[in-house]
Each structure stands twice: as structure tokens, then as C-alpha cells.
Amino acid sequence: MASSQKIVRSHLKDLHRKIRGAREMLRALVSTEHPLLAHIIPIRRCNLACKYCNEYDDFSKPVPTEMMFRRVDKLSEFRTSVITISGGEPLLHPELDAIIHRIRKHGMISGLITNGYLLTTERIQRLNRAGLEWLQISIDNVTPDEVSKKSLKVLDKKLQLLAEHAEFHVNINSVVGGGVHSPQDALVIGKRAVELGFSSTVGIIHDGEGQLQPLGDQERRVYQEMKSMEKRSFTRVNAFQDNIALGRPNQWRCRAGARYLYICEDGLVHYCSQQRGYPAIPLEKYTLGDIRREFVTEKSCAPHCTVSCVHQVSIFDSWRAPQQPAPETLSSNPGELVQIK
């Protein structure tokens, strides 16, 4: 059981997060010239090998800590609102706490996406001390299978540790589509998350290029029931998934490269993890001019995109600044994005 002191600290930190979040939303409406969310990758290596994932390897070394500091500092210069650390598996980086502390030192909101396997009581307490503000784990099934080992059976003890010790917000994301054998597992996972006091979201697994995978009848029923459980979620801006569930495209203005930056382990800025290769400019050379250009550049992959974080940050600017197609010289094949193979 969590101590009363821990509960009080958690409530105070939650209130502080909400106040800062409201401030950042107001700033997003006032100015279009700063990123709202950046993903940084301190290590591409992962301790798992989920078959649907294309964002990992099993050999990469951690990015040097000083190099990660410089990337965080650059994002601070852009007045970035939120930095999320992902991978690979970010808990494999030996100086992860220092990177989180660097983010918080600059006054930016710090988040972490992890598979949860490496969490222990001591590790959670270190994340508390580093200043982590939210953490997300995606759990794909109730029992592990050949597609994914991120199962509730394996991770439930880790979730109990988080419920007892974490002073940061915890969100559990379950999934449907993309080869998940039992869609009903998402409901079991979501209900367990709420039972432990976490928020719960549901995602639709994309293909290898982040694109549309329509849901079957059973998957759509599970998806709709899961959405009714998302009232406590910090990622409630997900109406775009309703169209994806039905196999319909979304008409929206993707602000990747401007409001959202994906910085790979090599320090290059990409539209997102599924569109690596453009603009592929080193972060240290990225400028306000690049942000302004990408803000008004139409993305050909947008109608069938399932990358939820990009949808969510783009909603702030859905009512303004119409976009124009990218110049043909920016792509080796007109109408398509450059892909790093």
C-alpha cells in the first residue's frame, strides 16, 4: 500500500502538472513557432523484439550523455513544451535519470515511454527523484505470444510497484489491430489499469509505415468500449481513431517537423518514427525557419496516419494556417516521403 505521505506528494505533483499543462496549452494557442512535443531517443537497443515494431535493434550502444544534454538544451532554445524519452528501451541508458533531470532543469515537461520490464522499486524511486512527470507502458496482450511479450501476465507486478511508489502520472495503453490475436485483451488490460489508479488509453497498431489498418467487427466493439474508459486519460484527443477504426482517411493538418519533432538516436529531426528520412536535418542545425516551413507543409502520409501523438499536438492549429504540398525536390518520388531503409 502507498504511504499517506506518498499519496499527498503525488496529489500535489498532479496539481502542479495540470497547472503547467494548462499554461502550455495557452502558449500553444498564442504562438505557432515552438514545438509542443519532441521525442528523443537515447538508445535504439531494446530488450524485447515485438514483431510489429520497427523502432529498435539489439546491438546499439547508448547515445553519449553529453550529446543527449546538447539535444535537450537545443530543444529548450526552441521553447519546447514537452520532451518524451523513448527508444528502443530507454531504461537501458545508464544515465537516463540525468537526462530527465536536464529536461526538468530547463522547465520542460518530462515523459517516458517504456516496456516496463526493467522497473523495480529502486528504479521507480530514482525516476521520482529525477523529476519524471509521466510514464506510459503499452501492454499488447494478457499472455505473451509470438507477436509481443508485453503482456499483463508478465507486467502486472511491475504495475503494482508503480501504483505503490510512482509519484508521476502513469498511463497504460492497450492496443487493437495489427495482428493482435485477442482483441478482448485490451479490455482486461484497461480495467486493470483503472483498478490500480492509472489512466487507460487504446491505440490502433499501425503498419510498418505508420499507416491505416482498419479494424474488424470485434475489434471495433472492443475499441468503442475502451474509449468509454478513457475519461481519466491525459491523451483524450483521439477522435481521429474513430475514422481509422472504420478504415476511413482523416482530413487534418499534420504539423510534424514544427509542433512535433522526432529526434532519432543519430540526432536527426524526422517527421515521426514512421517517416524517418525527411527532413533528416541534424537537430543542432535545425532553425526557426525549418519550423516555419514544416508548419505550413502538407504531409502526403497524413490521411492514413495512425501516429496519435502527432495528431494530438496538431489539434491546436487545426483552425489556422492552411498547408501547401511540399516541393517535389524534397522527395525522390513525388507524393511520397523519403524512407530510410
Tell me what the structure shows.
This protein is about 35% helix and about 15% strand. By secondary structure, the chain is an alpha/beta fold. The protein has one domain (about 5-330): Alpha-Beta Barrel (TIM Barrel), CATH 3.20.20.70. It has a 9-stranded mixed β-sheet with strand order 6-5-4-3-2-1-7-8-9, sandwiched between helices. Helix 2 packs parallel to helix 3 (about 95-105) and helix 3 packs parallel to helix 4. The longest helix is centred in the N-terminal third of the chain and has 27 residues, at about 5-30. The protein is globular and about 50 Å long.
Uncertain runs = 329-341
Indicate the CATH class.
Alpha Beta
The CATH topology, please? TIM Barrel
Q: Using the alpha-carbon principal axes, give the shape.
A: globular
Can you tell me the number of structural domains?
1
Strand content: 5-15%
Mean pLDDT: 88
What is the radius of gyration computed over CA atoms, rounded to a whole number of angstroms? 19 Å
Briefly note the structural class of the backbone: alpha/beta
CATH homology superfamily name: Aldolase class I
Could you name the key traits of this structure?
TIM Barrel; 11 strands; 341 residues; two-stranded parallel ribbon; 34% helix
